[in-house]
Amino acid sequence: MELTTFYAKIETINTTTYDTNTIRVTAEDKEGYTLRIHENEEVVAGAIYFFESEPVVFKEKEQLEVQNFTHIDQMDIPFKRRQELMETFYEYAPVDTEDIKTTIEEYLDSISNDTIKVLVDTMYQKFKQSFYLYPAATKFHHAYIGGLSYHTATMMKLTDGFLAVYPFLNKDLLIGGILLHDICKVEELSNYAGPEYTKEGRLIGHITMAVKELEVIAEQLGKRHTEELLLLQHMILSHHYYGNYGSPKKTNIPEALILHFIDNIDSKMTVLQETLDQTEEGEFTSPIPVLDREKYYKSKLK
């Protein structure tokens, strides 16, 4: 019998008194299906799988019985196709992921300092796949699939104006610090779909994780005692600026200060834009938590 193959996201999992359980899925064509799967197989609600199934009749109803299945994260799928699937099944960043990736990699390619380049690129390559899937947070800003890379790309674009006005800033440090500052959120959060903070995320956090990870990479590359490593680590450590927000150090180099400002600007302006998009012209928004619960007026000006 010919197998039916398709990608689908599991919506619910129901146990039965038989040797097969039922799972309700939404397929890529937005159709809903009920699948039967052996009771010993482990699947996760909310996750995307590639299913191979065959039609069966169970209690006089036509259903599909799963013969094989693979979690999307265990598959070697081209970048563009993976992003298409993510956009189909989840709330996604409101921009084209290919454009985000092109932007980020163009800025990384512009780094001329060899030590900064190899440190940053090695870290980027290690987390690359997850980096384009994870949100930047569980709530407040960029809290959707692809939010982390979208936030990073926007921050990189904002550097152009600062570098033009303040040419004493080191471009390589600034670009490197932006790429690294949140990259370990892929380990701080449990997954990219409906994430929670991991045990390590709660007890250590993405700032310390990134500093540790960069130290290991530097040791492996023979860059352990370089000025570049020290400065990049400082930028990661200080980008939240305040201790009660997770930074053990305040900014002590200009690039770290600009990184903090750019991070703050993009996170708050993104939330403000999203809130204004849901507000009628001539009206005020609801209180916005990340902006001290202030209400913002949406003007009628074009």
Give an overview in words.
It is a single chain. The chain is α+β, with helices and mostly antiparallel strands. 44% of the residues lie in helices and 16% in strands. The chain contains ten helices and five strands, in the order βββββαααααααααα. It has helices spanning 79-89, 97-109, 114-131, 147-165, 171-181, 185-188, 199-203, 205-221, 227-238, 254-277, and strands at 4-14, 20-27, 32-38, 48-58, 61-71. A five-stranded mixed barrel has the order 1-2-3-5-4. A hairpin with a 4-residue loop joins strand 2 and strand 3. Helix 3 packs across helix 8 and helix 5 (171-181) packs across helix 10 (254-277).
Query: Would you report the number of β strands?
Result: 5
Helix proportion range? 40-55%
- List the secondary-structure elements in sequence, H or E: EEEEEHHHHHHHHHH
Gross morphology is: globular
Supply the number of helical segments: 10
Strand content: 15-25%
Which stretches of 5+ consecutive residues score pLDDT under 50? none
Query: How many domains, in number, for the residues?
Result: 2
InterPro entries: HD_domain (IPR006674), YhaM_exoribonuc/phosphodiest (IPR050798)
Domain HD: 150-266
Protein name: HD domain-containing protein
GO molecular function, one term: hydrolase activity
Short note summarizing the structure:
This is HD domain-containing protein. The protein is of the alpha+beta class and 302 residues long. Helices cover 44% and strands 16% of the residues.
Notable characteristics:
16% strand, 302 residues, five-stranded mixed beta barrel, hydrolase activity, single chain, 44% helix, alpha+beta, OB fold (Dihydrolipoamide Acetyltransferase, E2P), YhaM_exoribonuc/phosphodiest, HD_domain, HD domain-containing protein
